[in-house]
Specification:
The protein is of the alpha+beta class. It folds into two domains: about 55 residues, no CATH class; about 50 residues. The chain has five helices and five strands, in the order H-H-E-E-E-H-H-E-E-H. The longest helix has 14 residues. The relative contact order is 0.09.
Length: about 120
């Protein structure tokens, strides 16, 4: 038996039931299913989001897709607002006031992702 470290998580009931069903259908343990998912992705430091595609019955045994969240290098107001999890109006107001680093191109704001990360990291 491999050396194992306990990990306890709380899942919403529907997802826990799906995990139980997947383990049953695949004739494996839930522990092995989760460990396989983590091992298949690799570096947990870059894991941002896991999307599991399901069929009409709500379960797709053995099918998962991984899409790490990586915004583009240059963002629009809408993309930046989504990335920062704020409204577009807040982004526009901060940019108009000169508080948020960005440039207007053809009358529309564009933001360098790297400059925004630096701006966020600054201590006031």
């Amino acid at each position: 038996m491999q050396d194992r470290t306990p990990l306890y998580v709380r899942l919403p009931k529907p997802e826990a039931e799906r995990l139980d069903r997947a383990a049953f259908e695949l004739k494996t343990s839930k522990q092995d299913l989760v460990a396989g998912l983590v091992a298949a992705y690799g570096d947990l430091a870059t894991l941002r989001r896991v999307t599991v595609e399901t069929s009409d019955d709500g379960l797709a045994v053995g099918h998962a897709a991984f899409r790490p969240l990586s915004p583009p290098d240059v963002l629009t107001v809408a993309e930046l607002a989504s990335w920062l999890q704020v409204d577009e109006q807040a982004v526009t107001e901060l940019a108009d006031q000169g508080d948020l680093p960005g440039r207007k191109l053809a009358g529309e704001w564009r933001f360098a992702r790297e400059a925004v990360v630096d701006w966020l990291a600054r201590r006031q």
